[in-house]
């Protein structure tokens, strides 16, 4: 049985090897959120393209300014104005934020530190050369690479692409992730389950987590707990970039996922991890595709997806694996968990001021989706810890979809 860290390392190592050049396509910056860039983006000119004032105030020659000095205001420059005339010695020019500083000026004095007396401007403070001016080319030079392949596109990256005129971006295609649930008790979500059947909620949580991770879900439905049906559907799943199964990986007589994968030539890198929920999680490679067998209990499925499948989707997208989104928080109520496994308990994190506090929610174990639907994080209890006092610092794995 591997530890959480060992198991994640195995996934990253194996899927990292599969990371060849991926198919890519052009996507508008309006639609590229969360995609991974497959090209370099260069600047089309210098940034800023002119010496830019960062304040509303007066453009001056700094050495002419001392407290009490009054200079004639020779005009006004608004953002967007074409500026060709240099500042004449002994004068100043009113200037707005975002406007070009004229030649001959080397500082902008904030309007708050001046007094206007008709044509004259009286200065209350001395000036430093360069004050309140961002020099031309200081953010980026013309032709400089500002975005690289493998970068994930968020709001700042997309704004930068827009700034330099790169409105269509070559992006890696989302990896297609096949999703197959298993179990004789499982029915479609729009079917009326019999008294001892359950709806296939795991395919919905997995598809949602695939989307959040940047993949494209390919839902294959459910396989009965029979070797032939399972084998057929698994083979179909192996046509996609990765396959995620749920259920059928425990020790039960009808838990057939591992043996069917083995018969198809899978090599396994783990089939148990020292975590709860999620201990029976399986990871292997079958016909050159990563395959995950997640335990069927819904909360186990969700936790193991976040821990093991998310980094695989990152890598298959051409990006590096995200670190797990842990934060430290203060425990609201004492906890007692059996040692030996790293526990992930449904929790609720709240910020009182800037300080995060977390409490574990009451739950009935790893089948309890209702408890998880009110949780915004998983509270991690390390394997070696048993009692954790109220007020102690604990690690919390955020649910990125709701925090
Ligand atoms: P298994 O891992 O196959 O032993 O299943 C463990 C538990 O998870 C059982 O109570 C199953 O009924 C439940 N389960 C399995 N598959 C699903 C699914 N697709 N959706 C919701 N619950 C499931
Ligand atoms: Mg089952």
Which helices and strands appear, and what pairs or packs with what?
Layout: H1 4-17, E1 24-28, E2 41-42, E3 52-53, E4 57-60, E5 70-77, E6 91-95, E7 107-110, E8 114-117, E9 120-123, E10 133-134, E11 145-147, H2 155-163, E12 168-172, E13 176-182, E14 186-187, E15 198-199, H3 201-213, E16 216-223, H4 227-237, E17 242-246, H5 257-263, E18 267-270, E19 275-276, E20 282-286, E21 289-294, H6 298-316, E22 326-331, E23 335-336, E24 342-352, E25 355-360, H7 369-373, E26 377-381, E27 387-388, E28 393-398
Helix pairs in contact: 1-6, 3-6
What this model shows, in words?
The protein has 403 residues and is α/β, with parallel strands linked by helices. It is built from 7 helices and 28 strands. The strands form 8 sheets. The chain has a 6-stranded mixed β-sheet, with no helix packed on it. Strands 16-13-17-21-20-18 form a 6-stranded mixed β-sheet, with helices on both faces. Strands 22-25-24-26-28 form a 5-stranded mixed β-barrel. The site of magnesium ion has 5 residues, from loops.
Q: Any descriptors?
A:
403 residues; alpha/beta; 6-stranded mixed beta sheet; binds adenosine monophosphate; binds magnesium ion
């Amino acid at each position: 049985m591997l530890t959480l860290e060992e198991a994640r390392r195995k996934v990253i190592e194996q899927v990292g090897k599969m990371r060849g050049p991926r198919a890519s396509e052009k996507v508008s910056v309006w639609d590229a959120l969360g995609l991974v860039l497959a090209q370099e983006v260069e600047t089309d000119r210098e940034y800023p393209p002119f010496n830019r004032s960062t304040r509303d105030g007066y453009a001056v020659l700094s050495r002419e300014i001392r407290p009490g000095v009054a200079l004639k205001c020779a005009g006004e420059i608004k953002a967007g104005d074409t500026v060709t005339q240099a500042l004449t010695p002994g004068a100043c020019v009113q200037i707005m934020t975002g406007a070009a500083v004229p030649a001959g000026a080397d500082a902008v004095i904030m309007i708050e530190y001046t007094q206007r007396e008709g044509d004259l401007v009286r200065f209350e403070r001395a000036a430093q050369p360069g004050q309140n001016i961002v020099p031309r080319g200081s953010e980026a030079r013309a032709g400089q690479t500002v975005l690289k392949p493998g970068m994930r596109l968020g709001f700042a990256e997309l704004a930068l692409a827009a700034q330099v005129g790169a409105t269509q971006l070559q992006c890696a295609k989302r990896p297609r992730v096949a999703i197959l649930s298993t179990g004789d008790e499982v029915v479609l979500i729009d079917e009326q389950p019999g008294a001892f059947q359950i709806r296939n909620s795991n395919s919905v949580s997995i598809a949602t987590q695939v989307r959040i991770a940047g993949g494209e879900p390919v839902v294959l439905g459910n396989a009965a707990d029979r070797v032939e049906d399972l084998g057929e559907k698994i083979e179909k799943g192996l046509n996609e970039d990765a396959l995620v199964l749920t259920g059928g990986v425990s020790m039960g007589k009808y838990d057939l996922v591992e043996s069917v994968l083995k018969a198809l030539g899978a090599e396994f890198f783990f089939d148990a991890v020292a975590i709860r929920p999620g201990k029976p999680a399986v990871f292997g490679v079958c016909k050159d595709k990563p395959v995950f067998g997640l335990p069927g209990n819904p909360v186990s499925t969700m936790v193991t997806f976040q821990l093991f499948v998310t980094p695989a989707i990152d890598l298959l997208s051409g990006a590096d694996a995200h670190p797990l989104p842990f934060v430290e928080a203060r425990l609201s109520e004492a906890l007692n968990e059996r040692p030996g496994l790293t526990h992930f308990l449904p929790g609720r994190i709240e910020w009182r001021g800037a300080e995060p506090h977390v409490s574990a929610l009451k739950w009935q174990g790893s089948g309890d989706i209702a408890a998880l639907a009110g949780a915004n994080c998983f509270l991690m209890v390390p394997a070696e810890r048993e009692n954790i006092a109220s007020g102690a610092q604990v690690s919390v794995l955020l649910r990125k979809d709701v925090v």
